[in-house]
Design brief:
mainly alpha; Growth Hormone, Chain: A; 17 helices; 75% helix
């Protein structure tokens, strides 16, 4: 870890620039950090959300059925949750200029390995399956190097009173990256075979890693600017004296994470919100093919609709949560109710009416992404900016344990006597539990 810490250590503070240069430099760098983290995190999704589109191809070629696919999804989700939590604490004490591009480089390499495994002709079907599972779980772990440096960067360049709106704008990187992932993967697979669903995004990730290394910076002080709280005169009340104090590992985890009851509440709610979020991303293409008469192309379109549906609502609800005094839980609760109704609509719509299915998926995407974003922002609201990576990783860990649970459970249920009807009603039940838990967050605001 000594070499790791040396390579990724935060950038040193330098002498402050003259006062007349600070406003223009701040404007330039603030936009640059938002732009770079946006593009970088969207690219992480290209090399994460590309598996679902070709899952049926893997079943045809290697007999990887829904249960085995569920194992891959579950293992990847747990690995991602652990990676986001552990790498979040490392990221809090690392320079995002190096940390984030390195993570993107690793995930690109693992995408090449996943597609390349198909050319290992001597491997048996079972060995191929195990290889896919291990590679994609490793990919999940290094994907945990994506969000934390973004949280650290935005936490240092944007102050608490603008955080909901800024994160709402930034958060649509999830939707653009996730939506394009399905289209790019489907296009690549249709042109050059399913392996291209991993090779093409991998090449894009390599190019983006270079861009991030050239574009990103660490803290404002590392480029001669004052801290954001001083620049905007916008201090969290209890941090006016120590808002730049670095935290020791024990202090970070125990005093800012594990002893924070509000974080636990948001984390448990996030468990069920993530089940809802990923249910259709992981199983939507298979569901449309198995029940509604869809195909490879409709699976890619479904993911695009889910992801792009969240773009306008995420920006809107982030702004609303700021105007409501930071009541992220209240806004999240109100968003979950239409999702419940949309899943009933998806269930009741007969096969062949794909237009209505797409409309229901659009409603789900429109309303599920604001809670996904807002629960993550709540983690930042409820702790120090020096612990944002660990706090977001903690809440995210519960979310991806939820994704792992749905990844395995929905695969098993779909193959049982209950079939995809059982899948839909399981998701409906999880949506209802999320609504119940979020009622307890109604009045929670940023600390202080």
């Amino acid at each position: 870890m000594g070499l790791f810490n040396k390579i990724f250590k935060p950038a040193d503070h330098i002498e402050r620039l003259p006062e007349d240069q600070i406003p223009s430099k701040y404007k330039f760098f603030r936009w640059g950090m938002l732009e770079a983290t946006f593009i970088g995190y969207a690219t992480f999704y290209l090399v994460r959300n590309n598996l679902a589109v070709v899952s049926k191809n893997l079943e045809t070629a290697y007999k990887i059925d829904a249960s085995m696919y569920g194992n891959i999804v579950a293992a990847t989700a747990i690995a991602y949750g652990l990676g986001k939590f552990l790498m979040g604490s490392v990221s809090d004490r690392s320079n995002p200029k190096r940390f984030m591009p390195f993570g993107l480089l690793l995930t690109a390499i693992l995408n090449f390995a996943f597609g390349g495994l198909a050319y290992a002709g001597s491997l048996s079907g079972q060995s191929i399956y195990i290889g896919f599972l291990i590679i994609w779980a490793l990919n999940g772990f290094v994907q945990g190097m994506g969000w934390p440096p973004c949280g650290r960067t935005i936490g240092h360049w944007y102050s608490v009173s603008e955080r909901g709106t800024v994160f709402a704008v930034w958060n649509i990187a999830h939707n653009i990256g996730g939506g394009l992932a399905g289209v790019i993967a489907a296009w690549g697979a249709s042109q050059w075979g399913w392996q291209a669903a991993f090779f093409v995004p991998g090449l894009i990730a390599l190019a983006t890693a270079v861009y991030l290394f050239l574009r990103l910076r660490d803290t404002p002080q590392s480029v001669g600017l004052p801290p954001i709280e001083e620049y905007r005169d916008d201090y969290p009340p209890e941090e006016k004296e120590d808002h730049e104090a670095e935290l020791e590992t024990k202090d970070l985890f125990f005093n800012y994470i594990f002893k924070n009851g509000y974080l636990w509440l948001f984390a448990i709610a996030n468990f069920f919100v993530y089940i809802v979020r990923y249910s259709m991303l992981d199983y939507g293409p298979r569901y449309l093919e198995a029940v509604k008469g869809g195909n490879l192309e409709t699976g890619g379109i479904a993911i695009l609709i889910l992801e792009f549906g969240g773009i306008p609502s995420t920006i809107l609800m982030g702004w609303v949560s700021d105007k409501m005094g930071g009541r992220r839980g209240m806004v999240s609760l109100l968003c979950m109710i239409p999702i419940l109704l949309a899943f009933f609509g998806l269930y009741l719509n007969p096969a062949g009416n794909l237009g209505i299915d797409y409309a229901m998926l659009g409603i789900i995407g429109f309303f599920v992404y604001p809670p996904v974003m807002l629960l993550g922002v709540s983690a930042l609201d409820l702790t120090s900016k020096k612990a944002v990576g660990a706090a977001a990783g903690f809440v995210g860990l519960f979310g991806y344990i939820g994704r792992a649970a749905q990844g395995k459970a929905l695969g098993v249920i779909s193959m049982s006597q209950y079939g995809y009807d059982g899948v839909i009603f399981t998701i409906i039940g999880c949506t209802a539990i999320a609504i119940l838990l979020l009622t307890f967050t109604w009045n929670i605001k940023p600390r202080g």
